[in-house]
Amino acid sequence: DLGLARAGAGADGGRAEATLLDAALQARRAGRPDLAAEAALGLADLARTRPALRPEATALVEELLAGAAGAPGQGDATGDPSDVVTARLLARHVELQPDDGTGFGGRSPVDRHRLAARGVAALHARLDALAGPDDAAERTALASDLATLGALLADDRAVAAAAHHRAMVAAVAGDGKAAEEHLDAGGDAAMRAQRAIVVAVTQGDFATAAELAGDVEDGEGGPAARATRRQLLVARWLQGRLGDDAGGAGGGTGTGTAREPDDPADRVLVALARGLRGQARLLLHSLTADPDQLPGGDGRLHSLGVLALAAFENGDPAAAEAVRGLLAPYADLCCADGYRSFVGTAGFHLGRLALVGGDLADAERYLMPALSRHAEMQARPWVALTQHALADVLDARGRSSDRDWVKALRSEARWLASSLGLRPL
After folding, report:
1. Which pLDDT tens digit goes with each residue over 346-373?
2. What angle do CA 242, 244, 247 make, to 5 degrees?
3. Per-residue pLDDT tens digits for 83-105
4. Per-residue pLDDT averaged across 35-44, rounded?
5. C-alpha pair distances (Å), 305 with each of 47, 75, 324, 364
6. pLDDT of residue 6
7. What distance in Å separates the CA atoms of residue 189 and residue 203, rounded to the nearest whole number?
8. Do 16 and 5 meet the contact criterion of CB atoms below 8 Å apart?
9. CB atoms within 10 A of CB 129
10. Cα separation of 30 and 28, whole Å?
11. Ordered DSSP codes for 130-196
12. pLDDT score recorded for residue 93
């Protein structure tokens, strides 16, 4: 009932309010502070849009904070669930009573700041364990709470970390505007610079992307640097320059030292670009037979997007179907390492892979919305690729009523590809 109440709060606020309040009271009587806290968090969430609930939500949150285990500021938080829950309750208290330095048992403002510092440490520890699309909901919620406590403490590191996590989730969901707003709020110049490179590549402004990237291919091996190198590899592929030289294989601007790709999906695409089709097919087969070789976490969707590019170019229906199965659970998302890269929408890849397998109905079903999403994102290279693939689907379907549409799609795709300097379609 508690989970349903929180999930359905928007649809039936009155019933959800009663359920959450009753759950909190029953859990408190039963000695279950964890369930009481969950109900209190739900009630506080509801109070964001229903101010009349603020008194009850505030009182409940304060009571639970007063009974939180351990004195504030004692010991270091390690991401223990009770520490995370206490941090989330305190974040709600700050939202509900932003100007009140007391509360929850009459503790002083100093105590509240100590408890907030412990909460920030707990949220950092928990967020460090979350990555990838499967953790998106929890990651967003905890990052929001981290932002609240970070602002309370004027902790720039916490504010920047919260912005990072929120932007990662927003970008994968395809909400680039929200991702950039989060990054702006975080105030971290390096994160904004990474995003600027991605936007430039996504929009087909490859010269600006190379200029912004600078010497990133010679940078440290952290996740941000690796993601940027991988985005530049995609840029070279889009331009048809991936196989030009060894220096370009690693996704750099072509001005640094030679670097082979670290990710196995990138190696498949590089092998195809170099004309090593046998090597590419062997590696593609190995990855589809054992996808655990691909990275997990935030980089996995980027890898699946690159693997889908390679599977389409390889043209083998069996390999295309295998990659399609790996990507299908993420059909509504973007193939991206958060805000740090973009390799088209998952729907675009699913549509092209369906085309390789001769499933024209599914191909059209995926490619039509992918074309709209790419256009909304101003992802011009991906618009051209989607138009070209959709034209192939309609042509293969063979309806006379589609002829003018096919002709228009191909004409627009070729013009766009020519104006952006893309690889031959």
Report:
1. 999 999 999 999 999 999 999 999 999 9
2. 80
3. 898 899 889 888 887 765 555 55
4. 84
5. 40, 44, 10, 18
6. 47
7. 21
8. yes
9. 10
10. 5
11. --SGGGHHHHHHHHHHHHHHHHHHT-HHHHHHHHHHHHHHHHHTT-HHHHHHHHHHHT-HHHHHHHH
12. 87
Cα–Cα distance for residue pair 51/306, rounded to 1 Å: 47
Reduced DSSP (H G I as helix, E B as strand, rest coil) percent helix, strand, coil of the chain, to 5 = 75, 0, 25
Q: How far apart are the first and last CA of the chain?
A: 54
Q: Which residues contact 265 (CB under 8 A, 6 or more apart)?
A: 287, 294, 303, 304, 306, 307, 310
Angle between helices 81-96 and 109-128 (to 10 degrees): 130
- Distance separating alpha carbons of residues 97 and 87, to the nearest angstrom: 15
d(CA 380, CA 401): 27
How many of the other CB atoms lie within 10 Å of CB of 365?
A: 16
**If you compute the radius of gyration of the chain from its CA atoms, what whole number of angstroms results?**
25
Lookup: tokens for 267? 């190696």
- Residues 333/172, Cβ–Cβ less than 8 Å: yes
Residue keyed to tokens 């010497």: 215
Q: Which secondary-structure segment (H or E) carries 404? A: helix 403-420
Q: How far apart (Å, rounded) are the C-alpha atoms in residues 226 and 266? A: 12
- 236: its two tokens: 């070279």
